[in-house]
Amino acid sequence: MSGRVLVNGSPSTTVSAFDRGLSYGDGLFETIRFVRGAAPLWSQHMDRLRESCVRLRLPLPDAETLRHEATVVIDGMEHAVVRITLTRGVGERGYALPQTPAPTRIVAGFDAPAMAGDAYAAGLRVRWCDTPLAAQPLLAGMKHLNRLEQVLARAEWSDPSIGEGLVCDADGHVISGTMTNLFAVLDGVLVTPALDRCGVAGVARAEILASRPEARVCGLSPTDLARASEVFLSSSVRGILPVQAVGDTVYVPGPVTRALQQHWRGLGFPMEQA
Amino acid sequence: MSGRVLVNGSPSTTVSAFDRGLSYGDGLFETIRFVRGAAPLWSQHMDRLRESCVRLRLPLPDAETLRHEATVVIDGMEHAVVRITLTRGVGERGYALPQTPAPTRIVAGFDAPAMAGDAYAAGLRVRWCDTPLAAQPLLAGMKHLNRLEQVLARAEWSDPSIGEGLVCDADGHVISGTMTNLFAVLDGVLVTPALDRCGVAGVARAEILASRPEARVCGLSPTDLARASEVFLSSSVRGILPVQAVGDTVYVPGPVTRALQQHWRGLGFPMEQA
């Protein structure tokens, strides 16, 4: 895996083997799409990072420092993704918080992932995952480093024609994709699952909700999803992705999906194929 | 934090910033107590590690290699703890399993932690934690690297006179301590909570269950615990720790606890103060 990296501001590709990010997954991350040096959703990423730092009692990072370091690691790249990882740093052995926290800040730049040619136009084929997400309100919504559930869910398929898997909670409510948030149009209303018990509250999801005040956050069952007139996925890295099928249920990208793709282009993101 | 470390067999104190152990908590660990170069519970640690590797689809490590590396990192130390961390290694960005897995193996040696003078004789004072453990049968029992719940639970107190915190699941069943397993004597029967939905199935717990076939694994409520005649904690690093109080409920270390401490000494562990 390549990529330019700054660790606590210095060029490095390694971190301490005693970092709590590795020992316990004790930290957070953001993956931020850049287009010619600009990150249209930067402030939303910083909002989520700050809010999650408060919840995990991590010292708040300096957004200006992060912005500068992001610019350094993607210098010269037209389409880039920056992963910012923030951990509680090196500590004594054991779960107790270090008395003098010294967080680790990893800022890494990568080429933006290529999407399949017609992903934005025709949409993705999606499957159901069997891996349920556990209900943990204390961690729900955050993009923290404890992501084994996503790893297990993503490991359920290897067919490259399947673009994403949908995960439910233990009660069978639809929550999200393994790496995307989920939206549907039900009876003409844009809806997305509530994420107060599990799941990651994506920055793209936040942007959609802010731009569509009429959208509803609610519980969503597979039966609801089956009768939706439109289904799409959101991702801060990939944008607005229509769903063309969930298992055997087929959808046609509709006007709400297309309008949000247009909104995304207006923010400055390329979705040329749509 | 000090300690001698081998990373994939070579002296090093760092790992790749792209390691999936750091990115997603995608891995496992064992903390193994050594006394003058011997690890009485070594084979049980290897059993758990192998079983968890199968569940997480991690390549099985070679136990002989691990044993050799453990010996190297504790060379000359009379009382030591070895932490073995096994991750899925460096991969492409994204949750999908690497097509060619190259696990990372970190073997680190530390001085064994000192216990408070009368911990083994008089026992620990213990509190209840508010942080619930989420129910996730796919991860339950394993000592994986997703430990934010334990970090949050341990962050609930800083009073050094409190030796451990007890955690429950979301339904209020008592599960364990933050870093220990829990046993109680109820109506003359040794019991310990079931760990098929959350919690870590400790190696010391496995040794106790193997040596006490009459012990029962079952659901345990705080009310049950309040009327127990004995309560103790088990840990592969710390051994058998009597509980002298859980909140306001006081216990006296009893014959079952003392017999298991004796068993622990018989295995070769020092618990001099007991």
Map the helices and strands.
Two copies of one chain form a homodimer.
Chain A: E1 4-7, E2 10-11, E3 14-16, H1 20-24, E4 27-35, H2 42-56, H3 63-73, E5 79-87, E6 104-111, E7 124-128, H4 148-154, E8 164-168, E9 174-177, E10 181-186, E11 189-193, H5 203-211, E12 216-218, H6 222-226, E13 230-235, E14 239-246, E15 249-250, H7 255-267
Parallel strand pairs in A: 7-8, 7-14, 11-12
Antiparallel strand pairs in A: 1-2, 1-6, 4-5, 5-6, 8-9, 10-11, 10-13, 13-14, 14-15
Tell me what portion of residues of chain A adopts beta-strand conformation. Answer: 25-35%
CATH topology of the largest domain in chain A: D-amino Acid Aminotransferase, Chain A, domain 2
Q: What is the helix fraction of residues of chain A, given as a range?
A: 10-25%
Structural class of chain A: alpha+beta
Counted up, domains of chain A total 2
- Series of H and E elements of chain A: EEEHEHHEEEHEEEEHEHEEEH
Q: CATH class of the largest domain in chain A, please?
A: Alpha Beta
Task: Label the overall shape of chain A.
Answer: globular
Provide mean pLDDT of chain A, rounded.
95
> Termini distance of chain A?
29 Å
CATH superfamily of the largest domain in chain A: D-amino Acid Aminotransferase, subunit A, domain 2
Enzyme class (chains A, B): lyase
Pathway (chains A, B): Cofactor biosynthesis; tetrahydrofolate biosynthesis; 4-aminobenzoate from chorismate: step 2/2
GO molecular function (chains A, B): 4-amino-4-deoxychorismate lyase activity
Pfam families (chains A, B): Aminotran_4
